[in-house]
């Protein structure tokens, strides 16, 4: 559906509603009185409704105008927000991060970034590796930081940091405090991250093949 009204016409309407005359509205908007009058006429034609009652030289807003006024202000505010997004070179970043990275590595990095770019807008999506890969592929985030491999054929992955995975247990666990064989690890109950986690995938890739008894 093609629009029959414009933002400029709504601007004129709001100015007239607030100031009471086309002359004063035109002065506020740096328009000629003729241009402001034409914009108001076009708006009324586009809506097929009179928005003001003419009383002498003054324009008194009527029921149609009162119905439109809050909606016109909301539309103009929204348009101003859209315009502000692209003015002044404002930087906006949407970052996706897997859970461990978001909890332990990102906070100081984001703090340093905010100090360097205080006007930047940051959005952070936290999920497991698989979900962050999907978010990047779907353009929901600009880039992702993950702990495991990226299997998506249309994405490029680059090494960023190295980390170490360690098997641990409670201090009073029978396997704690001594060297442990693979057969003992295979027989022990495990607590692992959920499917889709990069940490889980690395454990399954590196350790699982050596634990033949692990189903």
Automatic annotation (TrEMBL):
Q: Which UniProt keywords apply?
A: DNA-binding, Transcription, Transcription regulation
User: What top-level branch of life does the organism fall under?
Assistant: Bacteria
GO molecular-function annotation terms?
DNA-binding transcription factor activity; transcription cis-regulatory region binding
Membrane-spanning regions, if any? none
The HTH lysR-type domain extends over: 5-62
SUPFAM superfamilies documented for this protein:
Periplasmic binding protein-like II, Winged helix' DNA-binding domain
Q: Which family does it belong to?
A: Belongs to the LysR transcriptional regulatory family.
Protein name, UniProt field: CysJI operon transcriptional activator
Organism this protein belongs to: Chromobacterium violaceum
